[in-house]
Amino acid sequence: MNAATPAKYAGKISGEPTVKCLRPTPYAALAGLLIAGCSAPAPHTGTAAKGTADAGQSSPASRRLITEEQYLNTIAHMFGPDIEVIAQFAPMQRTDGLLGVGATQAGVPAGQMVKFQRAARQVAAQVVSSGNVALHIPSRQDALIPCKPADATAADDACARMFLAGTARLLYRRPVAQERVDQFVAEAAKAATLSHNFYTGLGMVLEGMLLSPDVLFITDRTEPDPARPGQLRLDAYSYASRLSLLLWNSFPDDRVLKAAESGELATAKGRKRVVEMMLASPRLEEGMRAFFDDMLAFDSFASLSKDPAAYPGETGITLTAAREQTLRTIYYLLVTKNLDYRDLFTSRTMLMSPILGTVYGVPTAPGWQPYTFPADSPRVGLLTQISFLAVNAHPARSSATRRGKALRELLLCQHVPLPPPNVDFSALEDPNSAAKTARDRLDVHRKNPVCAGCHRITDPIGLALENFDGAGQYRAAEKGVAIDASGSLDGQAFRDPAGLGQALHDHPSLPSCLVRRAYGYAIGSPLKESDTEILAQFTQQFAASGYRFRDLLQTIALSPAFYQVTPAARATTKEANAKTQSPAE
Amino acid sequence: MKHVNRRRVLKGMLDGTAVTLALPLLNLFLNGNGNALANGEQIPLRFGTWIWGLGMNDVIFTPKKTGANFDLPEEIASLAPVQKHINLFTRFNTFKDAAPLMCHHTGWVILRTGMAPSLQQVRPGETIDVTVAKKIGSTTRFPIISATATGDVRHSYSYESENSVNAPEFSPVGFYRNLFGADYQDPNAAEFKPDTNVMVRKSVLSGVLDETKSLQRAAGAEDRARLDEYFSSLRDLERQFDLQLTKPEPRAACTKVAEIKSEPSAGIDTVQVAQRHKVMTQLMAMALACDQTRVFNMSYAGETAATTKAGYDKPHHTATHEEVTDPILGYQPEVSWYTRRAMESWGEFVSILASVKEGDGTLLDHSLVYAMSDISYAKIHSLDNIPMFTAGTAGGRIKTGLHLQGNGDPGTRLGYTLMKVLGLDIPSWGTLSNTTSKEISEILV
């Protein structure tokens, strides 16, 4: 099996430029080196579409495995946020920079199926719960079951059908064939008879639904595209699912499904109305949090800890709050305030909580409130938030290399090569060395020709953040020596962390990288060379909007590439079978 | 005539109806010789893996003496109490051939799959535990259980395929809940009452299987494998429902496990890792004794082991690259400190399995554990001489207490030998230079 994989994976990573040994270079010269093939606006050559009629204007149909967050969001939206589920699903493999793209390849081994089943049981038991006053368990039957059985100790097909058909429509994200609903009702009746409990019957069938491959895999189903004879587009329900995963990180709700059923999503006007409605929904916050959490590789927080001897104030609670702070700040600045995306890296405003106020040393109000650091504060932008600083550091010390690498890879979509396997770093620990600061120590790398290539592209960035220790706390000196935070980012010099934030703000790859990540996240597939043109178009439109993230989401969601699809090997049109109804045109 | 065991008889008696059966608590768990269960079935054979990161310091790890009664240099001195239960394998190599050396990835992938990975991003194919589970793990509640002492769910060394990872249990509380929570059937319980809900679940599952079949028929070739696996996993769930409907065989070695109610503190300090490792190993051992699984994986570290030492600013991996080799000692002292902690946990792992009495021996006697690191000399990511161990006699099939040297032979010889011992009919294992069809006969009884 492994023998067949190199070409496949080589293709996947080819879209992200590997940063080679570079000397500081002005942006103009770098444009071709660093972002070629990735996200730089490319001239229209007319050759990108070679091989297909509209390469770059379509995306592959895919089959994504539901993520834990999508599962939990969907359950919360359907049955209420108080449904408690311990899921612990297997994490996805980060692919093309995103866990969300890894979902396109993830399988379900037996151990994962057990976890799906356990989660399904927890959900079903709570949805049909009659409650227990003594144990303070609320009854949910009355709220979630839209009818009352004639006899709660026996089957009631009519009431069961009402609940199961409606629930199946939302979980399967499309109307379910009458024949399958009949099966659900029959199974519920059988279970109710055996258990002498109507609600137990419903719960058992709900459990089964939550194990269906039609539910746990989000499969793109296609249909002939009337506007492009011989080619395909997503059917309306799959388009609705793509939209919902992108904007809400959840399944479509009743309104979106109705738009699919009515044929509204088959029209440009209809799509625009639905996308605007979804962008205005409070659920957008969950969608945005999921995207940025993925893009910033914040999954590392799940196991992040700091050495209490080195950083006694940096507890698990603090780190959790730091992750939350960044996600809330992003939403606040980009949606609530509708700022330029690039301002994330220069804004002095962050959301602050009492826990973090203690760590940052600033006054706070209860809950999460915006706080703007004064003009002379070193806290400027996302790079100086505790989340970025702590997660890209060692447990007991900072790491200029990790921070530089993270900035390159996560925010500029560049790929920093792995270190060569046979490098001896021990000069870093030479007991006779006069090195006091990270800059002094890392100078060893930059003088070693084997190391210099990579460290020259990571360290000048990371060293600019050395004013913040491994826990993200400000420090002016290390071992008694004043920290020199000056450096340059691809030719733009700076003197301090604020300057680095400004250099990043001005870097042409910053917005184009966001576009690349957002589009890959939207279609749930690794990007290809043929996507260069569409990425360039998105980037141009993003710039024209003043780099407003909501506008970028809308651009992608309404683009032909988002709903025009190619019949990837992993999905076929045949699945639009008799079990599902076609949407009205 | 088919073998009729207790489980089969009771299932027949149920015939789809809820009944309560009061079985006498057996004082005849075993046959007269103590080497088989009362119904004549042999005490099951188990297979496990254990992994630690970043190899060893050869000068203080590798014994001077080979064969029995080998010396225990200071880096493995803590293994003295379990020396009689283990074998140590040194001077075996792994070969990347034309593939690049991917630091902490290449070595363990070779030793667990027989193949050198071509890229860091490429996940391994089927790992040895999965291969073995197909042979010996199909009758228990869990075909495989995996756990990591790091607290990080991403640290897995068990793969069904390139796209399908067996995620490890990373939380002791969650591990307890999954093994001994609501779905656990005590094999020694006096009463057995099949749950009618399980019967219903099984019935409902048949509809889900039909849905999966429908998708399978329509899927493209590449996607078909994912759906085939999905279907297979549903079948496994169905098999678990069947198990829940039948009275399990009593297991004398199975005792009640104290509930784990709180998590150890989060972190990867060696003390925290050791605590997590111990608690999870104890749970794992009892899961084996209670026949919840017969294949198990435990990892002490993730790739690029980041274990930390209180008061020392370099995690294990960083220290391997940055710490100067002491000119007098001839090794990196702090790196060795980390390795010694790993070896202590390895020794504890073996001890815990050996502490569970089973039949005329111990759980370890009916097990075969395959342990390895990812590299040998971490400073330069050397693939030559990656240290390996085995523990347990596999029911008397393996000699123990030996130190064997491979003289540069493929390290895959050990995995191949173990699979043969476990009854797998494989003519060879591995690819390119890692291919072997030669068992390590010195350990075979």
Write a brief structural summary.
The complex is a heterodimer of chains A (585) and B (445). Chain A is built from 25 helices and 12 strands. Chain A is mainly alpha-helical.
Q: How would you describe the overall organization of this protein?
A:
The complex is a heterodimer of chains A (585) and B (445). Chain A has 585 residues and is mostly helical. Chain A has a domain at 66-218. Chain A is 47% helix and 6% strand. Chain A has 25 helices and twelve strands. Chain A has helices spanning 6-13, 27-34, 68-79, 99-102, 110-127, 141-144, 157-172, 178-195, 198-209, 213-216, 236-248, 254-262, 268-280, 283-295, 316-336, 354-360, 386-391, 400-411, 438-447, 449-462, 497-506, 509-523, 532-544, 549-558, 560-563, and strands at 59-60, 63-65, 217-219, 222-224, 232-234, 349-352, 369-372, 477-478, 481-482, 487-489, 492-494, 564-566. In chain A, the strands form five sheets. A four-stranded mixed β-sheet of chain A has the order 1-12-5-4. In chain A, α7 crosses α8 (178-195), α11 crosses α14 (283-295) and α13 runs antiparallel to α24. Chain B is of the alpha/beta class. Chain B has two domains: 48-182 and 255-443, 3-Layer(aba) Sandwich (Alkaline Phosphatase, subunit A), CATH 3.40.720.10; 196-244. Chain B is 33% helix and 11% strand. Chain B has eleven helices and 14 strands. Chain B has helices spanning 6-14, 58-61, 106-113, 128-136, 172-180, 196-218, 221-244, 270-289, 316-322, 333-355, 412-421, and strands spanning 21-22, 46-51, 67-68, 86-90, 145-148, 159-161, 164-165, 191-192, 295-299, 357-358, 361-362, 367-372, 388-391, 402-405. Chain B has an eight-stranded mixed β-sheet with strand order 3-14-4-13-12-2-9-5, with helices on both faces. Chain B has a two-stranded antiparallel sheet with strand order 1-8. In chain B, a hairpin with a 2-residue loop joins β10 (357-358) and β11. Chain B is globular, with a radius of gyration of 23 Å. The two termini of chain B are 33 Å apart. Mean pLDDT of chain B is 89; it is low at 1-34. Classes of the chains: A mainly alpha (585), B alpha/beta (445). At the A-B interface, α1, α5, α8 and α9 of A face β7, α5, α6, α7 and α9 of B.
